[in-house]
């Protein structure tokens, strides 16, 4: 039986797909167009914010970046499979509060409150915009070319400065995303945050952009984010985890204020009689539509 006042924490760097998921989830539950694990309960909460996200999603437009500062408190009144009433809290934080855990070693107080009271965590990674790890072989290759260039002084740029100018200055915020996410998960589970949660659903968002690669979400994680995959799978981390491929839009949406005509792909999506059918959620070999199904696992 799921507790009445449960909270799911939504974690992810800027642009990782958090708000889009909430918008699509709410549409599926509110419309009742498809069979979902959780149904809509009697309205007891404030729905202004989540309804505005849903309308943007229905129009095939990207969500506006979530503003920094206080999170938008989303509370959904739901009914579980066993008929239980659940008021599910889903605070929509901006991605910067998560970057700040990694880069500044600081945790926003409201996020801390969420983490210490939640039953489960969803961690988002956008497969379209994550910063990949640099392969050691590539670094060695670059170092060799630099050595060759230095050995051949005629080939060097006149002052030698262009080489330095082209190098990116390191800062915590331009680290590979898998390093940041692994560290954030580690911080969440250890002191001083010590969140009492064990389950994390990893959502690889914008999955429609990689679904033709023929790999499962778990394989994608192993191939592209080996550090995170080993951290989760190594057994030492303490997390019970599942990796999902999530397409909450089904394809590319227009930007929030675009006046451009719809792309052929978006036109097809918009023609679907049930907008809930735009969505895909992949877990292993299962290809699902119901965005609330991971919540059942997270909350039970
Ligand atoms: N192709 C595709 N793009 C997606 C999908 N879901 C999200 N995106 C894109 O990913 C980007 C970020 O999505 P948001 O939901 O705003 O991300 P967020 O994590 O809330 O970002 P912040 O509010 O900045 O923290 C947007 O450009 C979305 O259009 C999807 O299913 N498919
Ligand atoms: Mg957002």
Summarize the structure.
The chain has 300 residues and is an alpha/beta fold. It has helices at 18-31, 48-58, 96-103, 109-117, 136-151, 161-166, 177-189, 217-224, 226-233, 264-271, 293-299, and strands at 8-12, 39-40, 75-79, 85-89, 120-126, 199-205, 240-247, 280-283, 286-288.
Which residue ranges are poorly predicted, with pLDDT under 50 across at least 5 consecutive positions? none
Estimated share of beta-strand residues:
15-25%
The Cα radius of gyration reads 21 Å
Percentage of helical residues? 25-40%
Q: How many domains, as an integer?
A: 1
Instruction: Report the order of strands and helices.
Output: EHEHEEHHEHHHEHHEHEEH
Structural class, from secondary structure content? Answer: alpha/beta
Biggest β-sheet description: 6 strands, mixed
CATH topology title = Rossmann fold
Number of strands: 9
The CATH class? Alpha Beta
Q: Main sheet: which strands, in order across?
A: 1-5-6-7-8-9
Termini, distance in Å?
7 Å
> What is the CATH superfamily classification?
P-loop containing nucleotide triphosphate hydrolases
Number of helices: 11
Which whole number gives the mean pLDDT? 91
Overall shape: it is globular
CATH architecture identity: 3-Layer(aba) Sandwich
Bound compounds? guanosine-5'-triphosphate, magnesium ion
């Amino acid at each position: 039986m799921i507790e009445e006042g449960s909270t799911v924490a939504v974690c992810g760097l800027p642009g990782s797909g958090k708000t889009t998921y909430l918008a699509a989830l709410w549409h599926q539950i509110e419309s009742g167009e498809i069979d979902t694990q959780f149904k809509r309960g009697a309205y007891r909460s404030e729905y202004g914010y989540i309804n505005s996200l849903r309308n943007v999603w229905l129009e095939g437009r990207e969500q506006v970046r979530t503003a920094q500062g206080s999170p938008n408190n989303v509370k959904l009144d739901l009914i579980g499979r066993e008929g239980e009433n659940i008021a599910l809290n889903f605070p929509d934080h901006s991605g910067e509060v998560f970057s700040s855990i990694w880069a500044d070693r600081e945790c926003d107080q409201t996020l801390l409150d969420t983490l210490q009271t939640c039953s489960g965590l969803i961690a988002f990674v956008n497969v379209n915009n994550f910063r990949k790890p640099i392969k050691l072989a590539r670094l060695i290759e670059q170092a060799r070319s630099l050595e060759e260039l230095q050995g051949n002084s005629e080939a060097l740029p006149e002052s030698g400065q262009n080489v330095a100018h082209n190098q990116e200055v390191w800062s915590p915020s331009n680290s590979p995303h898998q390093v940041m996410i692994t560290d954030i998960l580690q911080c969440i589970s250890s002191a001083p945050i010590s969140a009492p949660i064990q389950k994390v659903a990893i959502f690889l968002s914008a999955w429609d952009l990689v679904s033709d690669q023929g790999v499962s979400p778990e394989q994608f994680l192993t191939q592209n984010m080996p550090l995170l995959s080993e951290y989760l799978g190594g057994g030492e981390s303490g997390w019970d985890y599942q990796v999902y491929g999530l397409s909450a839009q089904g394809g590319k949406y227009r930007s929030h204020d675009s006046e451009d005509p719809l792309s052929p792909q978006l036109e097809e999506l918009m023609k679907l009689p049930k907008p809930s059918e735009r969505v895909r959620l992949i877990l292993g070999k299962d290809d699902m539509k119901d965005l609330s199904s991971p919540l059942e696992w997270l909350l039970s």
